[in-house]
Amino acid sequence: MNLIAAVDKNWGIGLNNALLVRIPDDMKRFRQITTGNVVVMGRKTLESFPGGQPLKNRTNIVITADREYRVKGAVCVHSMDELAAELEKYQSAEIYIIGGESIYRQLLDQCDTALITKIEYEYQADAWFPDLEQMQNWELTEQSEEQTYFDLEYYFCKYERKRI
Fold it and tell me: Which CATH number is 24's domain given?
């Protein structure tokens, strides 16, 4: 499985249930990578999307403790065991974990690849991605040339779990 996120210098990913910044090329890359695949998210992440609607042209799986929660165009699961059973229907390489913080943390150990947009700026944040730089079992394997959006610098990075 894969993780995909945009993080700031401190691995911040959000504030008040919203992205820290919207970079058009990052959003385009996210769409290109996830379209036609499976995206796994928590309820609050889904509700942060325009109209609280699932992402088009993807299989949307939403994790929520609320057993009454329903959303058209998405599969709702209510535990990590239910999620594991649902994900058995798909190839691991087709699955992208897209947030939020608690979902990333719960599923990190089940993933082999993290596609991270690293933004060279420190935002105020209240949600963070696990700092892969501090984890011995993850390594940076690819990094793009410097990208810019106005005066913001960022990099597209690929981290992979080390094979031990």
Answer: 3.40.430.10
Tally of structural domains, the chain? 1
HEC string for 91-145: CHHHEEECCCHHHHHHHHHHCCEEEEEEECCCCCCCEECCCHHHCCCEEEEEECC
pTM: 0.96
Residue whose token pair is 């996120």 = 5
Predicted local distance difference test score (pLDDT) of residue 163:
79
Residue type, 114: A
Strand partners, 117: 6, 156
For the chain, what percent of residues have pLDDT higher than 70? 99
Domain interval for residue 55: 2-161
Alpha-carbon distance of 22 to 94, in angstroms, equals 24
- Which pLDDT belongs to residue 55? 97
Cβ(141)–Cβ(116) below 8 Å = no
CA 120, 123, 126, 131: dihedral to nearest 10 degrees? 20
